[in-house]
Design a protein that fits this description.
5% of the residues lie in helices and 42% in strands. It is mainly β and 413 residues long. Strands 8, 9, 10, 13, 14, 15, 21 and 25 form an eight-stranded antiparallel β-sheet that branches. It has an eight-stranded antiparallel β-sheet with strand order 16-17-18-19-27-24-23-22, covered by helices on one side. The chain has a five-stranded antiparallel β-sheet with strand order 4-3-7-1-28, with no helix packed on it.
């Protein structure tokens, strides 16, 4: 494969643990019979769990004594969904072998030559576009997710400029580089990988290493190059996306971004124009009141509206009423990310993006945010976008961040 290191190098990188799931307990041996999950000091709800897969036959189900729960092997981990567990409680699962029937509801990925359509339990969730198409007169330069459906099949992101069809009058036609959900940064070795100006860089799709549907999680692993305007590679990325099979009132999209300075030193420059995980929300979530919007922007520190811009926080949430019902989305920063808790380029007009590099802008030049990745080295960043009903309090967003950042302890017995 032109422009990439030998496949064995990527296999070694891919063997890193799953993005969000930290503690796995002792290695699972051939004698392992049960799995004990401890909630810790938080109430748990719809939590993806991943533990070292047991030796020997691979189970397709677990039983907690009341119900059978589907499981799935991903990158050597046994994955399943913990539906709910109160703080201080434990639950014990036993392995089920020989039950071949798979659950009717699963996460399905349907790949074409330009997109991957993702459905959860038969309902559309989102579509990943990876060929940099042209819409509404705008030449796009980076992959993105659109449309994106939250609870109640409510669209969660702005449609402009991602369709040639007319958009509602309340949809702002600004910042055409804000493409629903995307990854970008405005300065990588001096290359603008944020805007879609003529001199801006590109993200060039190279291949999908895996595209997997499953009863617990659907996921893909993509290899891309970040390039200059002339498509000369500047930075290599391996992007792993996971969508979990959770009930319809909870949607989760996980990003695991592995950057490699494969073409010499790569410096992420100090600019506010960027975000390694970015969302432009639907107009009803705007927190500036324009167009009659009644949205709310808030972070984990309780800072709201314009006060949330440039601040350090573990998460940031945008919500608002849509046809009388409040919906929202929260973006979570993983504790192992660079400069956690991250600074947020979060705007009241509807932009939510995690930007750990633009520190001089966010701190009034008290800090410098450049980050140099030495040649051959890697940087890994992990995020979850959680789509929910209600505002951040009703959705218990802080507890859901803990599910991502401080998951329940899981131990084989």
């Amino acid at each position: 494969m032109v422009g990439f290191a030998p496949r064995i190098a990527w296999m070694l990188l891919a063997a890193l643990p799953l993005a969000l799931l930290a503690f796995t307990g002792p290695s699972a041996g051939a004698a392992a019979k049960t799995l004990v999950v401890e909630a810790g000091d938080r109430d748990r709800l719809c939590v993806p769990i991943a533990v070292d897969a047991p030796d020997g036959p691979v189970p397709s189900w677990l039983s907690d004594g009341n119900a059978d729960v589907p499981c799935q092997i991903v990158d050597g981990k046994l994955c399943f969904i913990l539906d709910g567990l109160a703080a201080g409680q434990t639950r014990t699962y036993t392995l089920i072998f020989g039950k071949s029937t798979l659950p009717a509801e699963s996460v399905k990925l349907d790949q074409s030559d330009k997109t991957i359509a993702i459905a959860v339990a038969g309902q559309p969730f989102t579509t990943y576009h990876f060929t940099n198409p042209k819409f509404a007169g705008q030449q796009l330069r980076r992959p993105y997710f659109f449309p994106v459906y939250g609870p109640g099949r409510t669209t969660m992101t702005r449609p402009y400029p991602l369709t040639d069809e007319p958009v509602p009058d309340n949809v702002a036609k600004d910042h055409p580089h804000h493409t629903s959900i995307w990854v970008a940064h405005g300065d990588v070795n001096g290359v603008d990988d944020w805007s879609i100006a003529d001199k801006a860089g590109w993200m060039v799709h190279r291949e999908f290493a895996q595209v997997v549907s499953g009863p617990v999680v659907g996921w893909f692993r993509e290899r891309l190059d970040w390039t200059d305007a002339d498509t000369k590679p500047v930075l290599r990325e391996e992007r792993t996306i996971r969508v979990w099979n959770v009930p319809a009132d909870h949607r989760m999209l996980d990003m695991d971004l592995l950057f490699e300075a494969a073409y010499g030193k790569a410096t992420f420059g100090d600019t506010k124009e960027g975000g390694l995980c970015s969302v432009r929300v639907r107009p009803e979530f705007r927190a500036d009141g324009k167009g009659g919007a009644k949205g709310r922007l808030v972070n984990s520190e309780g800072q709201t509206g314009a006060d949330a811009w440039g601040k350090k926080a573990a998460w940031c949430d945008a919500s608002g009423p849509v046809d009388g019902t409040t919906f929202g989305l929260a973006m979570f920063d993983h504790p192992q990310n660079l400069r956690h808790p991250t600074t947020w380029h979060a705007r009241t007009y509807g932009l939510v993006t995690a930007n750990p590099f633009g520190l001089s802008h966010f701190t009034g030049k008290k800090e410098k945010g450049d980050y140099a990745l030495p040649a051959g080295q890697t940087l890994r960043q992990r995020y979850r976008i959680y789509f929910h009903r209600g505002d951040e309090k009703e959705a218990k967003v802080d507890d859901r961040w803990a599910d991502f950042a401080e998951p329940p302890t899981s131990t084989w017995k």
